[in-house]
Design a protein that fits this description.
homodimer; 310 residues; alpha/beta; Rossmann fold; UDP-galactose 4-epimerase, domain 1; 3-stranded mixed beta sheet; 11 helices; 40% helix; NAD-dependent epimerase/dehydratase family protein (chains A, B); carbohydrate metabolism (chains A, B); NAD(P)-bd_dom_sf (chains A, B); NADP (chains A, B)
């Protein structure tokens, strides 16, 4: 099985690649701007492709003779995309479509696993979110993700690829570096409290968040690579299940598991972050549940998993 | 007012340009692959740009220093797009986005009138069609139109353009030439019966169609250029009102107005055409009605208008 992962140096990408290397015999091609972290890995059938997907040469190297499974995770994140719409078009739309078209052109109908986002459904999200919700993105990141979802549904219909788009909720805990993600606070709560440092929440105590640990996210990505194609809806996209927690629920469990003191916490609500990331409605994911995608189970398991990843 | 019309040699494009020249003092730029029909026109402030919009040079000439209104009608039609998906991406997606981005880059927030299609809502269409329907295109033509709708909604949100997307029903009567349109039969019924020739309907007598005459379509396009921006929904797209007729209703009125005999008519249902063009459900266009878009009024007016255009 020839498998390519783009965005392989990203937070989710690294975790996915490590899982693939540890648990499969797949021939893995990793693609990212900088793959320094992977250069000391010692595996047969591991290929590293450094460069930007806007380059035809990089795309050719990413696909090679053909791929059986293409995990396309590379993207300019939401905050950075909003700052640089032109680059978002290049990376999140044009190069993405070019890469997928190239993989499709080999004629072997590859499985394409595309990481989409709940942002395709809008901000604030409709309530409840279910499989009948319209695509109604409110920012350029979600707009380009939605456009690629539609292109993949069409390529799938025409028999060129076997497409599976999964819409990710907030994944925790991301590294505590500036990542261009507006949702960084969801991860910083883990880092700051684990380090015994003050944490200021930019959303209120009753803000509701959809969260998934990175290890659960990787399990869902691997599942997306092998899920039975015919059981997915014709738009080829599912909103993943996620735990729905209030900011208070999350903080209390992180305090409990880290032993940090509650006086480290303050709240300074930022209206735009509250609107985009703190008003997640009830979530009904029948299509994803039906084919076996899962959330972390409960808040204890989520926090344990997230803390173990940092 | 500097106005550009792409697809200016098309069926709707020619009618729109003639209306603009006859009734406004706008400085008009026409863009199409071949503008022979327009070369004998004698108007001040008329500029002709011949070439493909995939060319940067053509796009620069189309936009010039800036445009106040961009009517973007140019497209590879549905049947041709399905035959040549790569060209559909070039014309209906990439060049379209490049042109709109270029017009937006001039900084004057141009009104962009984009002719979308009811095909963005799927085939068969959901019943009834209303403003809550999801984007669910079933062919590549509708897929690319839906992707551009989403890109325009995002550009509008960011204040780069003032976007108005109108989803057209079947427009009649198109010229009786091979146009790559799968819906050609809707127009051929007018041509064949006006000429006293046999007409074979590829959809059944009870097939339901949404139709609009070309003159009504032009009136709606001109309305889209000047409609008050704030009264449109945030996705900037409206499904236009249309008359909903059965094939029998349409044929009987065409027979009446042309004096043709009913024994010219036979029915040979083609399942794919029946599915895509002969199952149009009840249509509720509140958002479009609210801002003043209109259909032809009744079947007599529609048929009279369509017959007068051929």
């Amino acid at each position: 099985m020839r498998v390519t992962v783009t965005g392989a140096s990203g937070f989710v990408g690294q975790a996915l690649c490590k899982q693939i290397l540890a648990s499969t015999d797949w021939a893995l091609t990793m693609v990212d701007l900088d793959l320094t972290w992977a250069k000391s890995l010692d595996y047969n059938q591991l290929k590293l492709v450094e460069g930007a997907l806007q380059s035809e040469e990089v795309r050719q190297a990413a696909v090679g003779a053909s791929v059986d499974i293409l995990f396309h995770l590379a993207a300019l994140p939401g905050g950075a995309a909003e700052q640089n719409p032109g680059l978002s078009r290049q990376v999140n739309l044009d190069a993405t479509l070019d890469l997928i078209d190239l993989a499709a052109s080999k004629g072997n109908k590859p499985r394409v696993v595309f990481t989409s986002t709940i942002a395709v459904l809008g901000a604030p999200l409709p309530s409840p979110v279910n499989d009948q919700c319209r695509l109604a993105p409110a920012m350029i990141y979600g707009t380009h993700k939605a456009m690629v979802e539609m292109a993949l549904a069409d390529l799938h219909r025409r028999g060129q690829v076997d497409a599976v788009c999964i819409r990710l909720p907030g994944i925790v805990a991301r590294p505590a570096v500036a990542s261009g993600l507006k949702s960084a606070f969801m991860s910083n709560v883990f880092h700051d409290l684990k380090a015994g440092q003050a944490f200021t929440s930019p959303v209120g105590p009753d803000a509701t968040l959809w969260l998934m640990s990175v290890s659960q996210c990787v399990a869902n990505l691997v599942h997306a690579a092998t899920v039975e194609s015919g059981r997915l809806p014709s738009n080829r996209a599912v909103t993943l299940p996620a735990l729905r927690l209030t900011m208070t629920d999350l903080i209390e469990e992180v305090l409990l598991q880290t032993g940090a003191k509650s006086d480290l916490i303050t709240y300074e609500k930022q209206p735009d972050l509250q609107e985009h990331f703190g008003t997640h409605p009830p979530l009904i994911t029948a299509a994803a549940d039906h084919v076996g995608f899962k959330h972390d189970g409960d808040v204890q398991a989520l926090v344990r998993s997230a803390l173990s990843s940092i």
